Write the structure tokens for this entry.
Amino acid sequence: MKTKKTKEIHLVVENLINIRNHKRLNQAEFSELIDIDYTIYNKIESGQLKLSLEKLSKIAKNLNLREIDIFTYPKVLREFDNKNEDIEAQLTIKLKKSLKEQVLEMVLGDKNIEILNK
């Protein structure tokens, strides 16, 4: 008796299926959205055809995503460039009055202490 081999579906293809389901689209509607022929997309989803990097890039572009976002779906990786961002922080410390000047000097420097004391 022959058993039918099931194709293993790659994580990216699983995520495409999840994206399609999230958008509540059938394969034909989704293939139109991502601008890939329905029969090709159907074969990709069923594991009969491997998804090329070129097709993945095209799909990501048409979904307004990056390729990495399809790999990490539903999470979206964000790039953080903190070089130009000012960071605001508040720190509350309880200390004796006698240590106030020392701590402010360590944190703010000599010149800024003079400004605060005016």
